[in-house]
Structure formats: structure tokens, C-alpha cells
Design brief:
single chain, binds 5'-O-[hydroxy(phenylacetyl)phosphoryl]adenosine, GMP Synthetase, Chain A, domain 3
Length: 433
């Protein structure tokens, strides 16, 4: 463990630490960030009223729109001269939000990413290839600083140029790869086309995150690369990667609770749900100086995994994020996340782990078509075999998810590959309208 004294802290000591930090944090934002002061005043809440951790429920939520309205710097809690770095959220929808880090924030983030890598089994002896994008995205620099903090040999390749990624992987004796899971698959596929079997290389650990991926996808990647694939989670608004990470037991992601308070709420009633029940993840940062967030609604769906982990860490675990409230498809009344479709697809022989869900319109009806590549061993010109495979895929989705969707099998390598976050849903409903 990178910080065993913190990672295995007794729960009661952790609660004391959280409460002390939370008090300071709430007082700071109240004084320094007018947006928080206004919200707290409107809710009739004063920071000094917080007596127990449960009182956090009385504090108003922060949502993505608050950060957007504060664009670029209005939610910063320190003068700009104390900010040493900015990043931003991916901004696939609408205005981006900007986040700022003080020197202390960068220090703590480096520790938390070193923790993450160490959770995954990496040590100072490892050679870490950072293939997350460097730039405004938090993935590249986050992993980079963490890897250096761990003392590992850090290779800042950034995303893109997949053939070069493979070359570096092979020539530099890389043992740990940090990238999105979808990009890991593309790297494996590209290596194979270059005649390189990744399984025969020293690579042994993958730290994959930044997008939803299924357990079945994990198995695919682990088999294709001969590695242990670890799920790592975070978001720019809260810090970037390094908010939660699986350990080698792969049974949920330990939330780094000395720095973040996690709550799971019902997104409709906004009330907390009991441990083990699914809901929207809400985070409060306890130590961030640049841009603290208080009860930030992530829109990510997860649940607390009850019980203790065999690794000895006392931090509670969240289940892998299956999707976001805004990615959820409602297909004839049934709620479905793309990652659930992925899980079904990956369990079927003959289809490749490359797919897209295409939303369209037929007349006034919404249509959903799952496009998936057939595996390399399937003869694309053998109509009867293809029809049977298509029926099998549609049948498996219908029986697992209780929805019927159109399935289209496509030829290998026709679904667009991504070098960062994969685009799983293509919405054509407003095209040509
Ligand atoms: O994706 C930070 C990150 C970088 C995490 C590298 C892990 C590795 P954003 O670009 O702000 O930050 O996107 C955050 O991505 O709210 C989730 O919806 C999704 N996400 C991140 N990690 C996971 C994961 C980075 N392990 C948004 N599983 C989050 C599922 C994830 N979704």
C-alpha cells in the first residue's frame, strides 16, 4: 500500500478526520465562494451548524450547471495567483467546466494517483506507459504525477498513434498501461496486426477508466493482453482520476474517503439510499483548495458494496459505474445502459468487442439498433450462419435486458475505434429532420 496508515485507518478515526475536514471545508467555501454562500443562505444553512457527518444532508447539492455558470473561475476558493494548474471536464455536452489546483492540490492528487497505481499492484519497479491524453483532460497528467510519485519509470506517450504505442510497449519493457479500456482493446488489436503478441511482453497491469466498461470487457482485455485489468474512477469536477480504485481483489472500487465523502442518493427524491442500493453518486471534497465541491451530483450510477475487503483497506467500495443518468436509454419503457448491452454482447462467441448503439426514427417511432462487429473467424459471406448469429444476439439481449432491439452485424474493423473515451451511442434521431 502506498499510504497504509491512512488506507487502513479504523472507521471511527476516519469519521473524526472527515468531520474535522468537512467543517473546515464548509467554512472556507462559505467565506470564499459567493455561489456557495448564496446557496447555503437560501437553504438556511450555516457551516457552524454542522455537528455530525449526517448533518451534511442539510447542505444543498452542487450540480454541473453551477460549474458551467461559474465559467471559467467563479467557483475557485482561492485567489488565481494560488492556482498552479487548470484542467477541464471533457465537455461532450455543452459548455466545459474549468477546475483549478493549488500546489497543495497537485501534491495530494499525486499521492492519490500513486495510491491508485499501488492499489492495482504497481510499485517503484514498474514501467508505466501513460496513454491517457495529456492536456485539459485530467487523465494524462493525473496518471503521470502519480506514477512519478510512486517512483515508477513513467513514459508520457499521451493518446494516439497506436502503432507507436505498441512499439513503446514492446521496446521499453512496459509493465503497466494506463488508458481507457476501449483504447486498450485497440492497442491489443493493433499489436496483433503488427505480428506482436502482447501476452508475451512484460506487460502485467492495466489501469483502465474514464468510461464505463463491463466485467465481460475486462475478461476480453485480460485474455487479449495477458494482464490484470483494474478499474479506476474519477471525474474532473472532483479532482480527476484517483477518486476511487479497485485493488487486486477486483470487488468494487475503494473510495479514498480521507479526501472525499461519497453519498448515494435517489436521483428523483434526492434522499440517500441504504448501502447496497443503486443510485446517483454524490461527492464532497474534503481537502481540495482550488475548487472544492460540496455534495456534487455526478450523474454516475453506482452503489456501495457492503462488507470489508480482503486487502485490509478500510475505505468503503463503490461498484463499477455502469453508466450515467444522462446515458440511460429508455427503450419501450425499459431503462438500459450501453454497458449492459456490452455485457451481453461480450458473452457471445462470434462477435467482437466493438459495438455501437444507434438511435433512429422510423416515422414517429424511435428505433434502437445495436451494431456489432463479427469476430475474425466468422465468414461474413455465409448468410445462414450470420442470420443465426444475429438471432442469437437479439435473443440474448431480449432475455437478459427484457427489451427487443434490432441487431445489425457488421464486418470486422468497421466500427470506429477510439483513442480516448469510446462513443457507444450514436443519436441520429434529429438527422435530416
Ligand atoms: O474521465 C477522469 C479519469 C481519467 C478517470 C482517467 C479515470 C481514468 P472526466 O473527463 O471529467 O474525468 O469524466 C468523468 O467519466 O463522471 C464517469 O461518467 C466517467 N468515468 C470515469 N471513470 C470511470 C470508470 C475522467 N472507471 C466521467 N467507469 C465520470 C465508468 C467512468 N465511468
Amino acid at each position: 500500500m502506498f499510504q497504509p496508515e491512512l488506507e487502513t485507518m479504523p472507521r471511527s478515526a476516519l469519521a473524526d478526520l472527515q468531520l474535522a475536514r468537512l467543517r473546515t471545508q464548509l467554512a472556507r467555501v462559505y467565506v470564499n465562494v459567493p455561489i456557495y454562500r448564496r446557496k447555503f443562505d437560501e437553504a438556511g444553512f450555516r457551516p457552524e451548524q454542522l455537528e455530525t457527518l449526517d448533518d451534511l444532508r442539510r447542505v444543498p447539492f452542487t450540480v454541473k450547471d453551477d460549474l458551467r455558470e461559474a465559467y471559467p473561475f467563479d467557483m475557485f476558493a482561492v485567489p488565481l495567483r494560488d492556482i498552479v494548474r487548470v484542467h477541464s471536464s471533457s465537455g461532450t455536452t455543452g459548455q466545459i467546466s474549468v477546475v483549478g489546483y493549488t500546489r497543495g492540490d497537485v501534491e495530494r492528487w499525486s499521492d492519490l494517483m500513486a495510491r491508485t497505481l499501488s492499489c492495482a499492484g504497481a510499485t517503484a519497479d514498474d514501467v508505466v506507459q501513460v496513454t491517457y491524453g495529456y492536456g485539459l483532460f485530467t487523465g494524462g497528467l493525473g496518471a503521470h504525477y502519480g506514477s512519478e510519485r510512486l517512483g515508477a519509470m513513467t513514459i508520457p506517450v499521451s493518446g494516439g498513434n497506436t502503432a507507436r504505442q505498441v512499439q513503446v510497449l514492446k521496446d521499453f519493457g512496459v509493465t503497466t498501461l494506463a488508458c481507457t479500456p476501449s483504447y486498450a482493446l485497440l492497442i491489443a488489436e493493433t499489436a496483433a496486426s503488427m505480428g506482436i503478441d502482447v501476452r508475451s511482453l512484460p506487460l502485467k497491469i492495466g489501469v483502465f477508466g474514464a468510461e464505463p466498461w463491463s466485467e465481460a470487457m475486462r475478461t476480453q482485455i485480460e485474455e487479449a493482453m495477458g494482464i490484470t485489468a483494474i478499474d479506476i474512477y474519477g471525474l474532473s469536477e472532483v479532482m480527476g482520476p484517483g477518486v476511487a480504485s479497485e485493488c487486486v481483489h477486483k470487488s468494487g472500487l475503494h473510495v479514498f474517503e480521507d479526501h472525499f465523502i461519497i453519498e448515494i442518493i435517489d436521483p428523483v427524491t434526492l434522499e440517500p439510499v441504504p448501502d447496497g442500493e443503486q443510485g446517483e453518486v454524490v461527492f464532497t471534497t474534503l481537502t481540495k483548495e482550488g475548487i472544492p465541491v460540496i455534495r456534487y451530483r455526478t450523474r454516475d450510477i453506482s452503489r456501495i458494496v457492503p462488507g470489508e475487503c480482503a486487502c485490509g483497506r478500510t475505505f468503503r467500495r463503490m461498484q463499477r459505474v455502469t453508466g450515467r443518468t444522462d446515458d440511460m436509454l429508455i427503450i419501450r419503457g425499459v431503462n438500459v445502459y450501453p454497458s449492459q448491452i456490452e455485457q451481453v454482447l461480450m458473452s457471445i462467441d462470434g462477435v467482437a468487442p466493438h459495438y455501437q448503439v444507434v438511435l433512429g426514427k422510423r416515422g414517429s417511432m424511435d428505433t434502437v439498433e445495436v451494431q456489432v462487429e463479427v469476430g475474425p473467424d466468422v465468414a461474413f459471406d455465409e448468410i445462414r450462419g450470420l442470420e443465426a448469429l444475429q438471432r442469437k444476439v437479439a435473443g440474448a439481449i431480449a432475455s437478459s435486458l427484457a427489451v427487443s432491439v434490432d441487431v445489425k452485424l457488421v464486418e470486422p474493423r468497421t466500427i470506429q475505434r477510439s483513442e480516448g473515451k469510446a462513443k457507444r451511442v450514436v443519436d441520429l434521431r434529429n438527422e435530416g429532420a
